[in-house]
């Protein structure tokens, strides 16, 4: 921590930030009922949804880790970002029109209408598992950095940092739900992007670079290569692998994810939702490019002034922790003002994905498992009380999972858990593709078995891929294989639409 940064100033800025969140929550949560909590009354302005979704898509992983990836993978991540554009086009033209036509609150209700109750419950369960682990992992990454660079100097234990974070998220989301999230995500996205922009400006001033100088320094550095075609399919940075993986990730982790789609479904109509998706995807490309440019500048600056890359212990070995370079430089080597802006950006990054995830988890459980949209269910007041309890329960669950990560205390193990959680999106891809593009019916009771077996088979395909596929190594495109295995499993237990069981 920079010594000239007064603890009172930092806490004052952070407290002011949370005060703004609470004010937003107060006004957006007035007279909130389930339709406002789940879908904001379908009255969200599309431009706010589009801007706020940028922060939710970037999250703390992007804010902390993407700049650090530049050292090992240069700008190859942009190949995936370009793939996102294809994925978002599929979402805007195929998925969202169907969601609006069916007037869905939970997108997994489609699986019940098309395939059956077991398919519906299985899809929703896989979302709950994936999002719980994913949101916890992202919040854990940011909490670790927040703890090391901000809270430790004040003597605050890690469990207290996490608890305070989750309690504050619960306080400003429990009434307004997605109606509040649309507005708070806008603020959080703004804070994240301003933190990156101000850091880029600060580093360029230290290096005495103007805009053209920044461009020249990055383009002439060893970090700026975007497209990789030379080494074929064996290269993890290969363009076609990255592009196809980006498209599939966008479709599954945005279009088939209740968290991300809930914001889109809160728009007034399909036209505004599609407009939101179009502008969101364009701005997201430039936002990711900005993070990569920041990463290049961080490494250029560290070499220029002699800053060593941070290290951490992994499996008994000391390895470079490039994801800690940004917080270390922002807090310890730049001005106090940049340190404060970074802390605000860090907090915004933590909350931009965790708050919407908490709301989506609550929505999915209430609608998909408690049947809030069924006529025979309890009345509105009873639903409101139940939703309140579910919201608390998921908040506590996030806290427990984060603390479990902390006590495991092995970054490599935790990242593997996160990767395993990513495997669970494959069955969702297979279920929705089968539901959309096949007219066949399925024996619904076999779906849970198929969806559990698919990630397991995918794991072994990945483990032995070099032996099975002549040295080929899977990367993010493994999601496509996972979805294909699920699709083939569903095809095996399917029958023609005119067949009677």
Domain tally:
2
| Mean of all residue-level pLDDT scores | 83
CATH topology of the largest domain: Sodium/glucose cotransporter
Per the principal axes of the C-alpha atoms, what is the gross shape?
globular
Element-level helix/strand string: HHHHHHHHHHHHEEHHHHHEHHHE
Question: In total, how many beta strands?
Answer: 4
Strand line-up in the sheet with most strands: 1-2
Number of helices: 20
Low-confidence stretches: none
CATH class of the largest domain: Mainly Alpha
In terms of quaternary structure, what is this? Answer: single chain
Cα-to-Cα separation, first versus last residue: 68 Å
Largest sheet: 2 strands, antiparallel
What is the helix content? Answer: over 70%
Secondary-structure content class: mainly alpha
The CATH architecture of the largest domain: Up-down Bundle
Under CATH, the homologous superfamily of the largest domain reads: Sodium/glucose cotransporter
Spatial extent as radius of gyration: 23 Å
Report on the structure:
By secondary structure, the protein is mainly alpha-helical. The protein folds into two domains: 7-410, Up-down Bundle (Sodium/glucose cotransporter), CATH 1.20.1730.10; 424-501, no CATH class. Helices cover 74% and strands 2% of the residues. It has helices spanning 7-28, 34-39, 46-73, 77-101, 109-114, 117-151, 158-173, 178-206, 211-219, 239-255, 258-265, 270-305, 325-332, 336-369, 380-408, 411-423, 425-437, 447-463, 465-468, 478-492; strands at 311-314, 317-320, 441-442, 494-495. The strands form two sheets. Strands 1-2 form a two-stranded antiparallel ribbon. The chain starts with 6 loop residues before the first helix and ends in a 6-residue tail after the last strand. The relative contact order is 0.17.
């Amino acid at each position: 921590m920079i010594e000239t940064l007064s603890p009172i100033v930092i806490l004052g800025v952070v407290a002011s930030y949370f005060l703004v969140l609470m004010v937003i929550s107060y006004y957006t949560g007035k007279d909130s009922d389930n339709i406002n909590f789940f879908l904001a009354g379908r009255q969200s302005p599309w431009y706010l949804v589009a801007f706020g979704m940028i922060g939710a898509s970037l999250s703390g992983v992007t804010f902390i880790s993407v700049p650090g990836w530049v050292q090992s993978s240069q700008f190859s991540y942009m190949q995936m970002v370009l793939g996102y554009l294809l994925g978002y086009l599929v979402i805007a033209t195929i998925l969202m029109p169907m969601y609006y036509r069916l007037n869905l609150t939970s997108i997994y209700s489609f699986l019940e209408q098309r395939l059956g109750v077991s398919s519906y419950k299985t899809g929703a369960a896989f979302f709950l598992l994936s999002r719980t682990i994913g949101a916890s992992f992202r919040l854990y990454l940011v909490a670790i950095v927040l703890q090391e660079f901000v809270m430790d100097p004040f003597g605050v234990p890690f469990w207290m940092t996490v608890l305070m974070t989750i309690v504050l998220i619960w306080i400003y989301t429990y009434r307004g739900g997605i109606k509040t999230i649309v507005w708070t995500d806008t603020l959080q996205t703004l804070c994240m992007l301003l933190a990156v922009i101000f850091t880029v400006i600060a580093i360029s001033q230290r290096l005495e670079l103007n805009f053209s100088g920044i461009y020249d320094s990055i383009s002439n550095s060893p970090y700026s290569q975007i497209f990789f075609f030379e080494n074929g399919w064996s290269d993890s940075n290969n363009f076609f692998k990255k592009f196809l993986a980006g498209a599939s990730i966008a479709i599954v982790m945005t279009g088939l994810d209740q968290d991300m789609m809930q914001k889109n479904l809160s728009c007034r109509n399909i036209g505004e939702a599609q407009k939101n998706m179009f502008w969101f995807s364009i701005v997201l490309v430039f936002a990711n490019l900005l993070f990569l440019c920041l990463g290049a500048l961080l490494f250029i600056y560290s070499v220029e002034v002699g800053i060593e890359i941070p290290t951490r212990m992994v499996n008994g070995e000391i390895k470079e922790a490039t994801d800690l370079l940004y917080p270390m430089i922002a807090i310890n080597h730049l001005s106090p003002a940049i340190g404060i802006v970074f802390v605000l950006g860090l907090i915004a990054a933590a909350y931009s994905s965790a708050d919407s995830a908490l709301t989506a988890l609550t929505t999915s459980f209430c609608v998909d498992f408690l049947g809030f949209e069924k006529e025979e269910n309890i009345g509105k007041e009873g639903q409101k009380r139940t939703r309140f309890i579910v919201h608390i329960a998921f908040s506590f669950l996030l806290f427990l999972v984060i603390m479990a990560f902390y006590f495991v205390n092995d970054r490599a193990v935790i990242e593997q858990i996160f990767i395993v959680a990513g495997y669970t999106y494959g069955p969702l891809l297979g279920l929705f593709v089968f539901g959309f593009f096949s007219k066949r019916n399925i024996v619904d009771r076999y779906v849970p078995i198929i969806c559990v077996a698919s990630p397991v088979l995918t794991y072994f395909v990945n483990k032995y891929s070099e032996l099975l596929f002549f040295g080929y190594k899977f990367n993010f495109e493994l999601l496509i294989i996972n979805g294909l295995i699920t699709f083939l499993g569903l095809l095996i237990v399917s029958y023609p639409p005119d067949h009677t069981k």
